[in-house]
Design brief:
WH-like_DNA-bd_sf, 3 domains, 16 strands, 5-stranded mixed beta sheet, single chain, alpha/beta, Arc Repressor Mutant, subunit A, Nucleotidyltransferase, domain 5, ROK family transcriptional regulator, globular, Tscrpt_reg_IclR_N, ROK
């Protein structure tokens, strides 16, 4: 299994050597601080089942790497209170990026997941060869790296989301119908252009959107499906709190389920795929005339969706009918997925989340009708609150997760540097 696949699946310890054990313990401690908050060394030792000397040594190393710091005295402690240990948010940074049909985007986050730099440019990627699209992305990434350099920050990893099938092991975009890409070595192209010592991996954008929606610690978000809509429709599966990638990393291509045999031809070359009846292009076609500005490729997707929502709110009958038809088809597909996977929640993301208030009832009705299990198997429909940023936020989350997987990726800082930055 490649390093990229391991980072997605958070593989546990597989070796017995001391270096591996220590890396695993560093990871365990760092995740514990993220998930359960600051605590004293004594409490960390008790919570993690490690002795106090080991925890003190681990904390010391994480401090040298700039990943944790001393906080306040622990409240409510019996006897002499210990000093709490907390995350140092600025100790490391991850960068997420997204290539979609109408835009490329980058987002940098710190160890706590807070955004520190966000860049976006509108570009019709379908009309450009992959190398030119990569040039646009590299320009954004260089700007993001410059933003981090201004903060004296060290980026560790870049994760790029693409609307297509991705070979995770090789950073290869196998096929992206809506981009017109096939067998594009995206990770290799980025490495050659960036010339920067960064870990680079590539993933499907809808899978990354699912990562963004899977809230750590929320039991209702441990088993979810995300249906992510922009020009195409993709999906992501989170099973027992972990992203499910499938045998070769191609799981989640919901948009190419055939739901309407003999229907419209899809960008993938087949007919009747789900995205041909629920994609934003189909909605706009049903809701507008040929000369409507919403059909112009020069109008940003966000603007188009905002206008559709405005027309619906104004009671435009044609827009409302089109929305109900899309909602019906979303529900038909969601019911099939629920019969197969029985998730706790199906999250409508991207453009589907933005129009969610108009289609949610239609989706739920089809779910109730089409799912064999009583009460739709306990599956409910939820709307994303992340808008069109879900995929890039998920990409940034995966990028910074590399540090939690292996804190030793961040170099130690000398005592002199620690004193200068404290």
């Amino acid at each position: 299994m490649s390093q990229a696949r391991e980072s997605w699946q958070s593989a546990g310890s597989g070796g017995a050597d001391q270096g591996t054990v220590r890396r695993n313990n560093l990871s365990l401690l760092l995740r514990s601080l993220r998930d359960a908050g600051p605590r004293s060394r004594a409490r960390l030792a008790a919570d993690l089942g490690l002795n106090k000397a080991t925890v003190s040594s681990l904390v010391g190393e994480l401090m040298e790497r700039g990943l944790v710091r001393d906080g306040q005295a622990e409240r409510g402690a019996v006897g002499r209170p210990g000093t709490s240990v907390e995350l140092a948010g600025s100790g490391a940074y991850g960068i997420g990026a997204e290539i979609n049909v109408h835009h490329v985007t980058t987002l940098a986050v710190d160890l706590a997941g807070s955004a520190v730099s966000e860049r976006r440019t509108s570009v019709d990627t379908r009309g450009l060869p992959p190398e030119q699209v990569v040039d646009h992305l590299v320009e954004l990434l260089q700007g993001t790296l410059s933003d981090l350099a201004d903060r004296g920050a060290r980026p560790i990893s870049v994760t790029v989301g693409v609307a297509g099938l991705v070979d995770l092991d090789h950073g290869l975009v196998s096929v992206a119908p809506n981009l017109g890409w096939r067998d594009v070595p995206l990770a290799e192209l980025l490495r050659s252009r960036l010339g920067h010592d960064l870990l680079i991996e590539v993933a499907n954008e809808a899978n990354l959107a699912a990562v963004a929606e899977a809230t750590p610690g929320d039991p209702e978000r441990r088993d979810i499906l995300v249906i992510h809509g922009e020009v195409g429709i993709g999906g992501g599966i989170v099973a027992d709190g972990r992203p499910y990638q499938g045998r070769l990393g191609f799981a989640g291509e919901f948009g190419h389920m055939v739901v309407d045999r003999g229907g419209r031809r899809c960008g993938c070359g087949r007919s009747g795929c789900w995205e041909t009846v629920v994609g934003v292009s189909r909605l706009i076609e049903m809701a507008t005339d040929e000369d409507d500005l919403l059909r112009s490729p020069d109008v940003a997707l966000e603007v188009k969706v905002e206008e559709l929502n405005r027309r619906a709110a104004a009671g435009d009958e044609r827009t409302l009918q089109a929305l109900h038809e899309v909602g019906r088809w979303v529900g038909i597909g969601a019911a099939a997925l629920t019969n197969a996977l029985n998730p706790g929640v199906i999250v409508l993301s991207g453009y589907l989340g933005e129009i969610g208030e108009w289609i949610q009832a239609d989706v739920q009705a089809e779910l109730d009708e089409g799912v064999l299990a009583p009460d739709a198997g306990g599956t409910r429909i939820a709307l994303s609150t992340l808008g069109f940023s879900a995929a890039v936020r998920g990409a940034a989350a995966v990028a910074i997760e590399r540090v939690y997987d292996d804190p030793t990726l961040v170099p130690r800082t000398s005592a002199e540097q620690l004193g200068a930055t404290s």
